[in-house]
Amino acid sequence: MTRLLREERNGRSALLTMNLAPGKRAYNEDLVLRGGVEFRTWDPFRSKLAAAILKGLPDDIVREGSRVLYLGASTGTTPSHVSDLVGPGGVVIGVEFSPRVAREFVERVARERRNVIPFVADARDPSRYAVSKVDVVYCDIAQPDQTEIAIANCRALLAGSGTLLLVVKARSIDVLKEPERVYVDETAKLEGAGFRVRSLTELSPFEKDHALVYAVQPG
Amino acid sequence: MSTEPTPGSPEFEALRQKSIAEAEAAIREASSRPDLHLVQAIQALDDTDKYLNVTATRASEWYGLHFPELIQMVQDNIALCKMISEIGAREGFSKEALAGRGFTDKKVDAVLEARDRSKGGTISDGDVGRVKALAALAVQLSNLRGGLDDYVGSQMKKVAPNVAEVAGATIGARLMAKAGGLDRLAVLPASTIQILGAEKALFRSLRTGARPPKHGILFQHQAVHTAPKWQRGKIARTLANKIAIAARVDYYRGAEDASIKAALDKRLESIREKYKEPPRRKPDPSGRPRKEGRPQRREKFRRR
Ligand SMILES: C[S@@+](CC[C@H](N)C(=O)[O-])C[C@H]1O[C@@H](n2cnc3c(N)ncnc32)[C@H](O)[C@@H]1O
Known about the structure:
The complex is a heterodimer of chains A (about 220) and B (about 300). Chain A is of the alpha/beta class and about 220 residues long. Chain A has a single domain, classed as Rossmann fold, CATH 3.40.50. Chain A is built from 6 helices and 11 strands. The longest helix of chain A is centred in the last third of the chain and has 14 residues, at about 180-190. The relative contact order of chain A is 0.14. The model of chain A has no long low-confidence stretch (mean pLDDT about 95). Chain B folds into 2 domains: about 35-150, Helix Hairpins, CATH 1.10.287.4070; about 160-275, Serum Albumin, Chain A, Domain 1 (Orthogonal Bundle), CATH 1.10.246.90. Chain B has helices at about 10-30, 35-65, 70-75, 75-85, 95-100, 105-115, 125-160, 160-165, 170-180, 180-185, 190-195, 200-210, 220-225, 230-255, 260-275. Mean pLDDT of chain B is about 90; it is low at about 290-295 and about 295-304. Classes of the chains: A alpha/beta (about 220), B mainly alpha (about 300). The interface of A and B includes residues 88, 90, 97, 132 and 133 of A. Bound molecules: S-adenosylmethionine (SAM). S-adenosylmethionine (SAM) binds near residues 78, 95, 96 and 140 of chain A.
């Protein structure tokens, strides 16, 4: 049984994730029943992972039982869906630096979902949240040096042949460079660090000047 | 990490609850508004400075009726007040009483000699007691001041590390106090930050058409007041720009960002280079000599 559903709605693809906390919303998403099971709508305009999946990123990277380190949890929108996807046998370690946005993440996502472990911490210091090795590092922290930060986290916590999903926001890396140029430079950094870059998914029209890089760390 | 907890196990749940509790504690701490305490502390520091000055000056002036030579010989007001409060009348000054105060032997001898041929008058026990109490208060205020200063320095590092780095802890805290908190400072435009603390001059300029102020609190920054006059406005503007960025990063992100200070230093360098020479006055096209001082009132703002 898959915890991710795709549907056609008004001629467009829509995504749903199976609600790990039935009856509970993490933000203002819709709760719907499919085959007697509760799912939550997953909006690609609000979640870059949903956007990437709709634009062709393989949907079995984050799957049932995955252990995911989520850097830049923010208010927990995407982490809540990752929590749905990995299910009761998976783990989401959610790291958010800013206490102001972490409040909602802790209250509405971590408290309600038994597979989520929250940390109010800086992603530059992985020792603060080194509770488990993980299968996937998801990084969306919008920092100029986030690729380096992501690599350091993979070194510290990603299991052999694990996956890195890195959201690249061109403008937060370098406002003056062309987005394509930024993507090339950042993927080159990953390759230089020994990662194999499998794909780069442009997120338009859901996000402007954003891409999601899918890379694998050699085992 | 050696014992990796299995999802769903009691150990896993215990770990999760512990993380939630710690995260909530961090969130609570952030929402207790440490910036507002900092704002009170910097104002208390500035108040204390004033009281300290007044009290120490009064104590030394009063004591000077009795032992004027000592006032002449000891420049440091706090050290002086310490002596007055601990030793009291002239007769109490001895080698032992002066030991451990950081004086050279020569200085100690000079004080003792001054004691013996002092031109000061006699003083009653009652008045000695009153001056001693006043001097002791000055010493206490000085200790209070030191504590507040340490607190402002260390709290600024925690609450607004980037503002502290760019503006300096004390000036940064004063800006925050003027704005009413870090949240307010974070939304102020740089042009307002530049003249925070110069409200009087600003209103005068609006009213009379006089030139607007170039800096307020920021004048206290050494990059501004040590610069030649013609660079000060530009430097204050640059400083204000970077402080505005720093305040936003501190408020919304909370992480240190060394690139702000680096960009500031670079920009200051280029201002100092580019405007090394004082500007030459442009000749007035009307041929009349340029008026010094405040320009005349503008028609629009003329008072009725
Ligand atoms: C673009 S948002 C993430 C949005 C989220 N991934 C989602 O889709 O719901 C970036 C987040 O990263 C956080 N962040 C920035 N720098 C960080 C750091 N060094 N460590 C941890 N979090 C950081 C920011 O506070 C912000 O909440």
